[in-house]
Structure formats: structure tokens, C-alpha cells
Design goal:
129 residues, elongated, 2 domains
Amino acid sequence: MLTGGERKDRLVPATVLENVTTDMQVMCNEVFGPVVNLLPFDDWDAVLDEVNDSPFGLQAGVFTRSLAHTMRAIEKLDVGGVIINDVPAFRVDNMPYGGMKKSGIGREGPRFAIEDMTALKMVVINAGS
């Protein structure tokens, strides 16, 4: 642990973990807190495959200076949102917000709320002459 991790009641400070492995719980499950795992890599596509191997997919935060890595992540990641060079909790209420796989069953936002509260019905009337 590089920093953080000292829980105070229900609060966990920002925590940075290194030397984690892909079989650790912190890598296999969603962490609802300010935790980041650092893993070295040599192959960008292998990293994206590793992210997609998770049963969850709310959002992904990608920090890079490479436009090629940015575009490949946007194209390949199976998540509800990809945030480049910012925190993955970024959200604007009128934007669609939600996850893929076990991280959500739909989207939030005004348009999606209206759709959730609306039942579509097709009506055909042949009134004749």
C-alpha cells in the first residue's frame, strides 16, 4: 500500500495499492471507495482484455498521453463510460449514466427516467370510409 487504507468509522481515505495480482479480491470485485490498483503492463490490448474480463463494467478511468491508447480503450472497453485523464466518477445529470454486465440494468438521466415511466403502445385504427 503506497498510501491510505486506514479506515475511520465508515470512511476510507484515498488508497493506492501496488503489487496487486488479478486474483485478489480488490481486483475481482467492485470497490465502492477511493481505491486505485497499480499494475505494470507491456501490452495495451492485454490490459483492456483484463478489464473486460471482470463481471462488472460501470466506468473505466484511463490515464494516458497516447491518443492511440485513448481511442483503443474507447473502442474496446465493455463499460458504461470511459473517462480519459479524469476520475471515473465524473457525471453530468443529463448524460446517460450506467454500467454494463453486473454493474447496472439500465441508464440514469432525464431521458431514461421518462422512458422507464412510460409504456409504449402501438395503436392502429382503420376507420373505414
